[in-house]
Amino acid sequence: MDARSLNRRLRDGAALTEAELRWMAQGLASGAVTDAQAGAFAMAVCCRGLGPAGRVALTRAMRDSGDVLAWDLPGPVVDKHSTGGIGDCTSLLLAPALAACGAYVPMISGRGLGHTGGTLDKLESIPGFRTGLSVDQLRAQVAQTGCAIVAASDRIAPADRRLYAIRDISGTVESIDLITASILSKKLAAGLEALVLDVKVGSGAFMASLDQATALAQSLVATAQGAGCMTAALITDMSQPLATAAGNALEVIEVMETLTGTSVNAALWDVTVALGGEALALAGLAADAADGALRIATALEDGSAAEVFGRMVAAQGGPADFVDRWPDRLPSAPVQVEVPAPRPGHVAAIDGRALGEAVVALGGGRLRDGDRVNPSVGLSDLAGIGEAVGTGQPLAVIHAATREAALAVHQAVQAAYVLAEDPPPEPPLIVTRIG
Q: Fewer Cβ in 10 A, N or C end of the chain?
């Protein structure tokens, strides 16, 4: 086999065999396939598609391009993946809650992508927290603590790491076939028995329309199940930030408030509980999703999820007393500036992407690979859809390194809010279930 002939056949509409896709994945991982050939492959897939069987074959091939973990644990190995949004910090709540309910969670997560925040960046706002565990360290921690949230090692789905970078520079990021194989190859390499997916839809999501989100959810569920992993997806609302904060340390604050019962964001709680219920049901740890949701809620309420979170933080290099002293441990920005409402009204719509881009501009994300992230900056006290505000009342609070940086995003944050005289209907938090 050779990449040129495979790309030509794919370009002309032929379906590649499982063996051919496996050869391509191994070539991506080893470097035998050049960047130009990888770009041509990505473009051919984007334009022609792989079909359901091809998606499964490519996903398996990319999964098998590196290590595939196998576990010998007294409970099921489960995980969750979100397609990304603003103020979406459910992973930090869900991983320890699932572990407290008897699941084992080797959560391989990512960094901020575009306007959306990254789970690893959020955790790294905790002093000393290490996300770069080796495979052996990941195994040991999951067995002992019940969960770990880590970056993918060089040995996990190396074909995806290569193709992911090629997609970004070849204009093929939006391909559902490639998105599906990218997400699932890493997740399935973790040796999962069950996976729940949170597919976001709305202004703050990559999939802004329900049709797009549904197509992606259906592709992910069918492909994961075709590859042998029990999977379901919830399509959830991202027409507004899920939390009342956007930014790394600021979202960890909201997580800790929820875990310790200091203050509970209802939307963040409800999505976490719903996703956890699905995961426990898929894994056989609950009779159904409703029973699973009750178990997750109990773990959050009785402090057992907080206890597991504290053990995870300590195991990954963070403070041993973090759960007890988190207000003292997290960084805070020196400048805070309110964004006032220009007139009275009700929040009718929010441009979530604009809010995410404001956080990136403040230094809370990356404009290019290698940029350093300031964990303390972002937005807090975000007004939600339907909320009534008077002239001059804050729509948000900007947390910035300098006053100049805050003023540079002030207008964009204000413009992200659409005000109307009458309150709009409340958007449904959980739109539908796929699987």
A: N
